[in-house]
Amino acid sequence: MRREDDIRTNVRESYAKVALKLENTQGFSTLAPSCCNPKDNQNVSIEEISQKMGYTKEELASIPNGANMGLSCGNPQAIANLKPGEIVVDLGSGGGFDCFLAAPKVGKKGRVIGIDMTPEMIAKARRNAEKPGYEQVEFRLGEIEYMPVADDTADIIISNCVINLSPNKRQVFKEAYRILKKAGRLAISDVVLTTALPESYLLDMNLYSGCVSGAISIEEYKALLKDAGFTNISIILKDESKEFIREWEPHHDLENYIVSAIIQAVKKGNY
Asked: Which pTM was predicted?
């Protein structure tokens, strides 16, 4: 069985390559082992990929250049219902895509905190955060299993196709519960298993970094959230996602094993 440290190292190195490679690909997808990219077609634009995930052209045009890296399996913004003044924490924030979209929704009195364990991603996101209009956005280097955020900080946690990459999801949800305020919300896009993966897929480290081998079942997802203390747990499968999942690794029939899902939950308590 692969050690957690080996998995984290592989994921970190893979996404560092994505961050560096995309500096020179002029908005087109990359073949580096990573989530949510068509592997056999480098002529597919990142904007096209993101529109398939549910982002509008207006949203994509509103963020800084380079923030959108095409690493999505859905649009957590669509379910987050962000309000002015709220504090948002984005788990696995990458180049800052969802953070920059959240910023105008929470306004100047709100805050957006992005967490990512890849220094190259944090550097890219911080450069974009220096641009006018994003004073309420900050990025912190850290692992989502041990978040650099104080207890009872966030009104809402968002995440986009990242939790599947963690080798210790139980710890991620414990941490998420810790940093949320009472009645705080979880709004996640992620991939889940619809049936067990072949052993060869489980052993393929590139498929782990590609958001496949680390996926868990709906039942396990719900159990981990419940064990962490969450209530009002909802997992809605997006069957239409099988169309773009098929493109991630065309030679692995992934659409028969995983599907994108919208995951929501609430921390116990009242404001």
From this structure: 0.90
